[in-house]
Every structure is written in C-alpha cells, then in structure tokens.
Amino acid sequence: MELYSKIKGVGSYVPAHVVSNHMLEQTLDTSHEWIVSRTGIEERRISSDTESSSYMAIEAARKAIDAAGVSLDEIDMVVVGTTTSTYVMPSTACEVAAGLGIAGATAFDVAAACSGFIYAVSVADKFIRTAEARCVLTIGVDRYSRLCNPEDRNTSILFGDGAGAAIIKLSDTPGIEYTELGSDGGRSNILTAKHQERLPYTTDGDNAYLQMQGQDVFKTAVSKFVDLIESVQTKKGVHLDDIDMLIPHQANIRIINSVAKRYKLPQAKVFLNVQKYGNTSAASVVLALDEAMQSGQIKEGSRVLMLAFGGGLTWGSILATF
Questions:
Q1: Annotated region ACP-binding: where (predicted)?
Q2: How far apart (Å, rounded) are the C-alpha atoms in residues 248 and 267?
C-alpha cells in the first residue's frame, strides 16, 4: 500500500517590533520610495534579545499543533530549517522539542538558508512515505536581522525575523504530491555569512556579517524558480493552470513579478506578503502559507506550489494539495 503525507496544520510567529522604511531613512542613505521600488518591502519585524530562533519556533509550533489537532505524544520527529541557531549544540530542533515537552522524538536542524522550510518538509515527506515517521513537526525560522550590518543598506533593508511551522502527517489520500531539492555550493560566494571565529582565533578585519552580490542573487533566483516550475510541469505533468496558488519565497517583489510575468500568472494566483515582513529566510514560505490559509485563499482541496531559493546555494519546491 502506498503511503502519503499531508500538511495538516500551519502556524506562524513574528516579533511585535516593526521597523518601517521611514525608520531606516533616519540611519541609512536610502528612502521609502527607493526601497519599495527595488524590493516591494515597506516594513519588517525585528526580534528582541529574548526572541531567539527557538523561542519564535516554539510559538509557531504551538499554533501549528493546535491547528492540526494533534497531541504532543503523536509527534515522532522535529525538523527545523534554520541558519540562525543560538547554539552550535543543541540544535534548534532539540530546543523546540524540549520547550514543547516532546521527549524521544528524532530532532535535527537543516541548514539550507531561505530554502530551509522546503528542505524540512521534503525530509518529513520522505520519512513518512518510507514508514519511518507518522507525524512530523517542520519549522522554518530565522533572525537574519542579527546577521546584517546595520550600516549596509544593501542587506539591512531586506531582512526581517520570524518563524512558521507545519505538521506533516501520514495520510490515506495524497497531500504532498512532489518535492524537489537542489544546490550549487560552487556559487556560494554570491550569498554568504561566516561564523564569527572563536577566541583565540579571531582574525582582525574578518567580516562576519551577511555578504550578498545582489544582481547575481536576483538573476539566479529567477532562473531557479523557472527551472523548478518547468520541472514540476515536465516531471509531474502539472501545469501552472492546474494550481490554485503559487507561494514563492518572499525575497524581492521584482523576482516574484518577473516569474509571474513569464508565466502570465494573474495576481490572484501569486501570494505576496513581502511588503509586511521582508525576507524572513527559512520562515518566508511558511509565513506566507499560514497567512494565505488564515485569509481563506487556501482551503481544503486547494493545490499549491511553493518555491524557495537561498544561500548555499540551495533551492526547492513543494507541490501539495490541502
């Protein structure tokens, strides 16, 4: 008998502190109009010192668990997509499991930058389909505001913080129809952030802030989104006309619009919330998914294609029916 996995509940968390473009005008050589015209971003949420990645992940997870109607003892795996763990060890996944009171479950992090949630869900899907798990808590969470140089307008205007979670369960009927993952470590230099060297090995002048070659990232992201869409169409036989909603990684509205224009997608089929949250990295896709579900734009029976691209370089897609 073939086994299926399905997304059963979704939840999200964003910090209360809002940083608008007008606030950034006070410290950076930029303007609200400049930021909006180039990114579509109007504001972003910035975490406080007490809102760690694990804290935000736990808050999002509680909402997803409630939405799915599952008990904690049903969860046999926790997979967290993040590149902003508080500790080298324990993993954020272990912190989440402990914080929720889940004992004995498999728990680990996936470091795939902005593709982290897509990677986490794909891993969960494979474990369920091979009967190695029945109920998986997947999370995308990042605090990239802590990785950005506050004096660098090329990066600090882009990123915000947040978390999103989804419960993936064994299902009698198809839910997650197709996933695809990919990477190209040979081009990692266009989007990178170093670990700060630990004493006594600190190198003077070593820049541990996020570094980004914006134009290269833009072009590669558009190219990979197109590749992922073409792959779904050729390998799965699902045309974009057959989906109800496209949820792309919310990095830059020009990237999203470029892809939508290429495929002549109506605005109603492409979900956007980049204007409110900026680029929340691994949380981006699942934050958008939760908002789309809460607003009723995705409901039971909806077919959704999710896409992400991030540092690594990494990319991935999920085709799912709800």
A1: 250-254
A2: 13
In the chain, the amino acid numbered 144 is: Y
Radius of gyration of the chain (CA): 19
* Rounded distance between C-alpha atoms, residue 318 and residue 177, angstroms: 8
If you classify domain 4-173 with CATH, what class do you get? Answer: alpha beta
Per this entry, what is the length of the chain? 322
Going by C-beta distance under 8 Å and a sequence separation of 6 or more, which residues neighbour residue 126? none
Question: pTM of the predicted model, to two decimals?
Answer: 0.94
- The runs of H, that is alpha helices, within 232-318 are 253-262, 274-277, 284-294
Residue 48 pLDDT? 95
First to last CA, the chain: 21
Q: What is the largest CA-CA distance in the chain?
A: 61
Tell me the per-residue pLDDT of 148-187, one tens digit each, with 9 for 90 and over: 888 888 888 999 999 999 999 999 999 999 999 999 898 8
Instruction: Note whether 307 and 248 are within 8 A (CB).
Output: yes
Q: 17 burial class (0-12, 13-18, 19+ CB within 10 angstroms)? A: middle
Point out the residues that are catalytic.
Answer: 114, 249, 279
Q: Does domain 177-321 bear CATH number 3.40.47.10?
A: yes
Q: Are 117 and 165 in contact (CB under 8 A)?
A: no
